[in-house]
Amino acid sequence: MDRAARSRTPTAADCRTPLMADVLHPPRPWARALGLIAVTLLGAWLGLLVLGTAHTPVGPMDTSMTLRPSLTGGTRIAVAPLGDLELSSHYAPLRLDVDVDRLDPVRSQALIAHPERFSGLQAEVTRDVTRGAAGLVLHSCAAVTCGAAALSLAVHRRPRRALAAAGLALALLAASAGTAYATWNPKSVLEPKFSGLLSSAPSVVGSARSIVTDFHVYQEELARLVTNVTKLYDAASTLPVYRPDPSTIRVLHVSDIHLNPAAWRIIASLVTQYRIDVIVDTGDTMDHGYAAENHFLDPVSTLGAPYVWVRGNHDSHTTQTYLAHRRHVTVLDNGRVTRVAGLRIAGVGDPQFTPDRSVVAAGDPAERTAGGRLADALRTARLAGKPVDIALAHNPVAVSEADGLAPLALAGHLHHRVITTLPQGTRLMVEGSTGGGGLRAMQNTTPAPVQASVLYLDRRTRRLQAWDEITLGGLGLSRAEVSRHLPHDNRPGAPPTPRPAGAPSATPGHRPR
């Protein structure tokens, strides 16, 4: 290379190195903004993971409170090793996680030794939670700002961008907190969802009557939760006995057992645990309805409560005849009305018998015809001054014909829950499969859950006060959940809805599941 070439002055083209690209062609404003938002969100999330936990003593327990990104919000309370309690407390991109780390032995023993201190536990818990919430706010603010600023500084290497990321993270946290505050629902504790061993302890939320009288504010219920969890820990492996309110009639609704022998043990356990007054089975107890299957039904007389049954499309008349001669069993068909545990119950058997696909189904017209017979029986009972409280059929199409003639209608057949209110005010509750779909469920890739429900009815008005939805893991699974629900007219603050004699109580429905 000659000397002239070596001494040539660099041109603009020579300066366009990769390091100069940002200077000559700066990124567009929207690209910078998107980059800033992405770095801010990721940094804030990492900050919450690393620095966002606040350790707070609540009564006799040591807890950890954390905010976590979430699409649905809500609150999760983990009580190891008993399980989780979930509340739909708010709707925001943040979920509140409360982990009960341990029960302080000194504080808990002092509480057990002096039970009179339980009366002041509510105020103590309220102070502890308020102090913990304040600490969580400070921890979260510091966590998101530090996380966003640190990641922005590592990525962009510009202090100004780091400060902008910190400010944006703080603004996003404030907006999320404002959304949570605006949507905060202290009554969410009325419909908690339990999992783990907590699902075996419905006394954590009290009886159906105490839901209405005692669930006034979230702080009161939190104190009740702390009290019961303390007793659970103190009792070790012995869970406290569930004491249902004496003014409620407790109905266990089961359906679609489909020859699953495990269902009888589950039902017997629920009868004992919830002190059930009457069991209602809306059919498909069998699979093919053969006489050889009849001995499967023998345990119904030993479950500890009267058994009311209607025929399903997998139950034959042979099955019905055999059950009708079993002790403590009442078979309902053609609109027959019976009085059990203080309730008037009427039912109709399924008009179809379709144990396999070789039988051509008659379809919904046959179901509506059977439902018409049920409706006629309900009208007759009302005219006689003895209105029916619960109408039963296996197929929801049939029992829907009773709309407006009974406050509550129970069915099965669908193998999943559907709870809604019919146009004339009757609440329709379709139960899932208490047998987990039976042995045929083994053909599915995912085991069907075992489902049953406990209904609480007022003994005087026979209105539905509350219900517990019980869901157990299917074949080979050990999951257990209990969800409590209240009709809208039975929630605290709801205006009373008097029930005229002979008229059903129209109550808003729970959204279909």
Automatic annotation (TrEMBL):
Residues 485-513 are annotated as: Disordered. One of its GO terms (cellular component) is membrane. One of its GO terms (biological process) is lipid A biosynthetic process. The chain crosses the membrane at residues 33-54, 136-155, 162-184. Pfam families: Metallophos. It comes from the Bacteria. The lineage of its organism: Bacteria, Bacillati, Actinomycetota, Actinomycetes, Kitasatosporales. One of its GO terms (molecular function) is UDP-2,3-diacylglucosamine hydrolase activity. Residues 249-415 form the Calcineurin-like phosphoesterase domain. This is Calcineurin-like phosphoesterase domain-containing protein. InterPro entries: Calcineurin-like_PHP (IPR004843), Metallo-depent_PP-like (IPR029052), Metallophosphoesterase_sf (IPR051158). Keywords: Hydrolase, Membrane, Metal-binding, Transmembrane, Transmembrane helix. Residues 502-513 have a biased composition (Low complexity). The keyword Membrane applies.
